[in-house]
Every structure is written in structure tokens, then in C-alpha cells.
Amino acid sequence: MQKAFLSLLLGLFLCLQLTGQKQSPTLIPKLTLKWETDSIFPTVESVLYDANSKYIYTANIEGHFMKKDGQGSVGRMRADGTEVQADWITGLNAPTGLCIQGNFLYTTDIDEVVAIDLQKGQIIRRLPIQGAEALNDICADPEGTLYCSDTGGNKVFQVRDSKSSILIDSIDTPNGLLWQEGKLVITQWTPQILSQYDLKTRKLQQLVGRIPWIDGLAAIPENAWITASWGGLLHHVTSDGEKTMILDTREEGLQAPDVSYIPTTNTLLVATFDGDKIRAFDVDFTPKIINPIPLDPAAISGLGLKKVTSAADPDRLLFQKRLYQGEEISVFIVASETKTANWEDYSIEEFIYVINGRARLKPATEAERFYYPGDFFWVPKGYQGEWETQGGNSFYHELSVIANERTNPSSLDPRPAIMDKAKMAGIDLTPDRDQTRSFLDILQHGQDLNISTQSEAPRTLENFQNNREQLIYIVAGAVTLQAKGGDSMHFQTGDFFVLPKGFIGSWQSEGHKLLRTLRVEKTKSER
User: Closest Cα partner for 262 from 215, 221, 216?
Assistant: First the structure.
């Protein structure tokens, strides 16, 4: 894919659905740093709180995570961060996961499980896991069975009565593990998903996807989890697949491979890997407010873009800024020097709004066509031909929309299409479901993106929810939206904004007879 040409959308598809049901807002944890240790836990991979002893335990790799060098250790401290013993247990290699069952603390150490007597404070047993390549996390069920993820070997092992066996013999890079009510909740590193494995039916199902660098996890109230991501991200994830980022420490240079939750004090412990410290956060559960997201007008004007390099055309002078990345769509601003690319099979479906300059597309079997500022056009996956960005004395400048998850086959008709200008102008609109006060015209129904115009007579809706993530462009008129518990936001002719999935609040439209909008959303699956 030539990222230089992501001309993301301009449309918007607002499936606003009025509902009479009141929904309880999702409780999203708000984190406030409470305390942190000094950098005394060398390469701390995991953290675990024990409610019985009131101790916090840490798994410290210190050396290489796959090297049997004897440098690893387990540390401990009190729940308030005092009485620190950074090397409470030594003689390990690269301990990663931690769990407690009865009077024993268990840790995974490359290809074995090590049992530590909590009262004696010493290693009492090392159990080799036959066939393990790179053990990672470990958890236990109430009956005493241990479960170990083998990230390197794409397996999950179980240990019962000191004997190990393969529980799941083919699972892509399992990482964090958590036993809950007869199921294993599993983070999977490479596919970036949170999954659940039913121990009775032996079925694995995905709970939520697109969590980058997903690593450890912890259960929290309201049937939810907090996932830890290697890059320094924490996400709140609900059982119905809703996720929200609640912490980002990338600018601080701190990783976040693991978390542990203390319910009695609403404290979240976070390991930091090569930050060598444990951080403790107060957790405040507050209702989640989903607001509309205005697109940055400065970036749309060409300000604040960053120079990037396209792998497909590294010599092209190119600037870009991502305005929005959601669950279903992403929006970019792209600026390029005048240059031509020749495509044999364009790898994505893309919706584009031309801001400056012009785009010249010459399909392999048809005459060339030009797109000018103010034009909205669509390029299908599989497009073949020339694609030239022409900036004149300046730069070509566009807004681009793509779907985050895309279909595999190319379009059966790989020709670009401009959006119907008559419909955009409000001519010959199609009544929506025999109504006289609202109109709906599908401008392009692609494999990945659906583009439409939607128009309505001015109205006020006090309680509606949006069930699809949509980019909306106000063609004519204005709309004021206010999420429940949020601030009022006003959009008028020429504005772009994203209406996220799950928005609940009021919608008040204005216009000279009609509010007219262009909308872009992910094409609904036909399954």
C-alpha cells in the first residue's frame, strides 16, 4: 500500500437511531498516579498483588528474556510500596508470569515452572514443561491446575499434579492469561486480540481486536478487564467488546507489560519492564461520555503536517497527519508534491476529498479523469493505472478515509468514481422509506466503505444513539449535538466530524428546509 495516497474520506454516514431504551453509561476507569518505586526492580516483567499476605510480588528478568543466566529474581514489597525486597528470591533465569495458589507462588521461567513457598521464602520445586519454547504468563484455577502460555511455541500448557500437558496446541502467540469461571481469558500478541477459551467446550473465541502490543491483563469490576500493552498503553475492555484507552506512557518512555488490580483500595499496579519500577494508580470509575470528534481545521488547512516516507515511493516529498483512528475507519490529511504513480493493483479502497491542486487518474483501459478542490471521489481496491497528484506551485492536498479492516478480494469494477454532484447539490433526492422529511441516497456502496448523502427537515431528538462509526460532512445547514453528561458541540456548513459508535445524546438539526450531509462508514458485513 502506498500510504502517500490515503485520501481518506469526507463523507459521513450517520445511522442515527432513535431508541426509547435508556442505557447505563459504561464505567471507564480514570487513573491518577498514587506512588511509584525507584528503579530497583531490574527489567520487571510482571506484578501481582496477594490479598492474603498483603504483599506485591514482581518478576524481574534483569538479563536476556531467553537466556539461562541465573540473573532473574522475584521481588516483593508491601501494598503501600514500603518494605521493599527487590531480590527476595534469586537463582532464576528470566521469570515472566506470576500466580498464587494456596501457599505457593508460581513463576514461569523460559521452559519451566518454578514453585516458591511463600512462608519459607524459598524455591521448593522446578517443573520442566516438555516442549515449551518461551513460557510467558501463568494462572491457576480453584482446583489447583496451572495454565501457562507459550508465546514462542504458540501453545497453552496445563499443569496438574506436577504433570504438564498441552491444552491448546495451536494458538497465535498467546501472552497474558487469566482464569475466570471455567474460561481462560488470553491476550494474543501478534493478532492484537483478546480471546476467551472455554475449558469445557474447548472453543476459542475473539472478544475484541486491535489492541496493539497486548500483553498482560487484570479483571476489574463490571465484568471488564484492563489490558496492558508493551508500548505503554492501558485499555479498558468490556465483555461486549468495547475498549477505551485509559493510559498512554509512550512519551515518558515507559513500557506496560503487566498490571494487577487491588479491589479493596481501587489501586492498579503497573510493571514498567526496563523502567525497572512499579507504579500504583488510584482507579476512579466514572461514566464514559462519548462525544462527537471534530476534525482539526488547522490540519485540513495544511498546517502541522509531518514529513513521512512512503515505502512504495521513498523519493516522493510527502506530508501526512492522521486526524482520526477508530474501530472501523481512519481519516488522514495528505500533502504531496507533483508526482505520478503507476498502479497494477491498488491495495486498498479509499474515499478522497480534494483540498488543493488536482488529482489525475488514468485507468488502464479508459480515458484520464481529473478531480479538483471540492470534489469527492472513490478509488476501489484493485485500481489499475496512473495516479498523479498535481500541486502546481504548491502541494497537492487531500483528506482521505479508509476502513481499518478490509476485504481480501479486489473490486469487480476497478474504476474510480466521483460522487454524484446533483445529489450533493440537493437535486432529485430520494425519500427515505416513503418519508417526506428525510432523504437517503447511496452514492457508493463499496466492499469496505459506504458513502451516502442524508438530508432531513430540521428536528430535535432528545435521546438517540448512533450504532455505527461515521464521518460526517455538513453540506448545508447546521447540527448541534450534546452527549449525555457532555458539552454541547455545534457543526455547520463545511465542517467535518466523526460521530463515534455508542454516542447517546441529543441531536438538533437546522437548515433552510433541509440539513444536508455527506457520510462515510464501514460497509456492513453481509454475514
Answer: 221
Are 494 and 478 in contact by the 8 Å Cβ rule? The answer is no
At 424, the amino acid letter reads M
Measured torsion, CA atoms of residues 259, 228, 24, 500, in degrees rounded to the nearest 10: 160
Residue 297 is classified by DSSP as H
- Cα 174 off chain centre by: 18
pLDDT in tens, 167-198: 999 999 999 999 999 999 999 999 999 999 99
Neighbours of 433 (CB within 10 A): 6
DSSP class of residue 241? S
Q: Torsion over CA of 471, 476, 482 and 487, rounded to 10 degrees? A: 90
Amino acid at 227: T
For the stretch 183-240, pLDDT in tens is: 999 999 999 999 999 999 999 999 999 899 999 999 999 889 999 998 899 999 998 8
CB atoms within 10 A of CB 462: 10
pTM exceeds 0.70, yes or no: no
Q: What is the residue whose three cell numbers read 495544511?
A: 302
Q: Which of 310, 326, 330 is nearest to 318 (CA)?
A: 310
Angle at 120 between CA 114 and CA 126, to 5 degrees: 15
pLDDT value, residue 22: 36
Note whether 229 and 236 are within 8 A (CB): no
The cell for 242 is 468495547
